[in-house]
Amino acid sequence: MRELIDRLERERIFAPTELEALLACDDNYLFQRARTVRESVFGSRIYLRGLIEFTNHCKNDCYYCGLRRGNSDARRYRMTKEQILACCAGGYALGLHTFVLQGGEDPYYTDGLLADIVHGIKAAYPDCAVTLSLGERGHESLKLLREAGADRYLLRQETSNAAHYAILHPPEMSLSARQKCLWDLKQVGYQVGCGFMVGSPGQTLGHIAEDLLFIKELDPEMVGIGPFIPHASTPFAGEKPGDLRLVLNAIAILRLMKPNLLLPATTALGTIHETGYELGILAGANVVMPNLTPAEVRENYLLYDNKNRMEVGAVHRRLGAIGCEIEISKGDYFDV
Ligand code: 5AD
To answer: CB atoms < 10 A from the CB of 62, how many?
Structure first.
């Protein structure tokens, strides 16, 4: 196993069967190598991105997600431009220089309204990056928002296997549409984040290997990986959550495949284990996304049950305790 890990570090690309063997690895040497590689590129610095969950309305009906339109138990909310700007002000005062606007696919936010919000944030905080996480949008819309000042876009592929995609999504959604949107994002000039859930119903190690190979091909700046966690008001309510070790292995493998990648220790990882964030960092992750969503609405943004968010103060304390420092610049991706 150690020889395989060393070879991944040296050669960076692997055959699917070798990736599957690495995903099943139970040797902590994998984490040691991933951590060493992270430190050789980024030192002990961890990047922060402030997450603003500004709408939980969604026109989609993904079988895993608590925001799905079919969930009539959800209490829906939308934030105004002024409320979003107030969140940014709070985050800026705490030292954050990236704001991630995340929401369901909510047609209420037209291109014009979103462009106005993005423009407003960039005008108030020219030293900050704006990241959008709004689901699939057309090429023209993505271009318009890029021109309004958005720097980055997060859109997980969720899985890279079409048959598996169809297990997780209703028939009106397709892997090809998802992948097209990811390629459009690159073409329009965003820094792109993709990613997938680990342990979603029907997923095999082979599917995760396909995700790793898709990521190699897309060559995004960021990859978000977290465990699937069931939500009680979805068709997957009775399913098992994703496996912690498998999430950490996937993070570590990506760190070795692409040393300068931005890899968040995700909220879902922080939810399935008390020290999930720390374990993610120690397995090679280098980004944490503290939550800036106002307390009044936050409890309604439930992608999955028992969502456990981190505030900026807790991020400083917990990362300090494992010997990390916080990077204060907006933390753009850089080539090495
Ligand atoms: N468990 C874990 N992650 C989830 N997401 C949505 N629903 C769940 C769930 N039940 C993730 C998806 C989506 C991101 C915003 O949250 O991967 O892209």
So the answer is: 23
Where b means 16+ CB within 10 Å and e means fewer, 175-190 reads beebbebbebbeebeb
211 phi, psi to nearest 5 deg: -60, -45
Pocket test for ligand 1, best of 304, 306, 308 (most atoms within 8 A of CB): 304
C-alpha of residue 68 to centroid of ligand 1, in Å: 11
Give bridge partners of residue 45 from the DSSP assignment: 325
What pTM, to 2 d.p., does this model score?
0.97
φ/ψ of 52, rounded to 5, equals: -120, 110
Backbone angles phi, psi at 23, to 5 degrees: -65, -30
pLDDT tens digits, 142-192: 999 999 999 999 999 999 999 999 999 999 999 999 999 999 999 999 999
List strand residue ranges (DSSP E) for the chain, in order: 45-48, 50-55, 98-103, 129-133, 152-154, 191-198, 222-227, 287-288, 325-326
- Ordered structural domains, the chain, with CATH: 2-327 (3.20.20.70)
Kindly tell me the sign of the dihedral angle through the C-alpha atoms of 52, 57, 62, 66: positive
SS3 call for 189: coil
What's the chain's average pLDDT? 96
DSSP run (H or E) holding 311: none
> Is 60 within 8 Å of 135 (Cβ atoms)?
yes
Helices marked H in 258-308 — which ranges? 267-272, 276-282, 295-298
| DSSP run (H or E) holding 198 | strand 191-198
Six token digits for residue 132:
């959008």
Pocket test for ligand 1, best of 49, 52, 55, 64 (most atoms within 8 A of CB): 64
